[in-house]
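Entry 14. Ran structure prediction on the chain below.
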Amino acid sequence: MSQTVTATLDPPSSPAIMLRTPKDMQDYFQDAHPSSPSASTVHASSPEQLVDKALHALEKAGVQLIEWKSLLYRRMGVPVILKNFQYLVPDDQLARASTILEENEGLPLSIPPRLLLRTGGDFYAKAKMHRVSQYASVAQAQHLMLYPASLASYADAELELKPRLTALAHPSCEKVFVPSPPAVYSSLLRMMRSYPRYNPTRKTLESDLSELIGYNLYGLEDGYVDCDDEKLCEKLEVDRRVKDAVCVVSAWRRDGELRDEDGWIAEALEDIVSGKGDIENVPWADPRAKL
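Output, structure tokens:
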């Protein structure tokens, strides 16, 4: 079973449920519905244990789980801290899955502060966020986050059932669906094109793509290198790494692994990886268009 590292968060000096002034609301997630008296008992378990139990419940209910965002990037070599646990589920199963988590598993549905909605865009607006930590502050809260699968638009052929990333030795939910690396890159590019250039969701996607290329395709331990530092570039064999990465993308393109109905994704990715193109210049949506 694959192992990974989850965030360890220090408890605040006050409990999650407390009287707060409007000024403080921006620093806390609010429960969408009143918590049951047993909520504190639920959160006596660790976030990792609660997530495992919740995923197992969804699995038994026939909900398809697709690994996404931080968990997926960690699998692909990006050293992200796993604060939240993010999964895609079929659009027509999202509401039912959220109900199972809230009513059956006792995980409160959170309403994110407006500041997060403004800075994180659809990564908060379209998520069903179920709190798996005892604490609700923005700095310390942890969530199991479910998203509609249409957001990433993976095809069934791009998904494979694989062991779930978890620190638990004997998880109840052992496997989830994982998209192939070329599917991840083509999905990111498709999503980027669906948002206006300066939209917060788009800016997050640009950052995600940059980190994935640095860590996953180039294999750089720090994910980034100053191209003006010739000695460092020579030491890290940056030119070779770039050539190898371009070969990987070219092979994906040749083998039809980059789902590219409009015929632009493969070329755009090759240009970015080779250094000929810029991530910020990936096509974007008209800001007047409805997302």
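Residues 200-217 form the longest helix (18 residues). Will compare against last week's run tomorrow.
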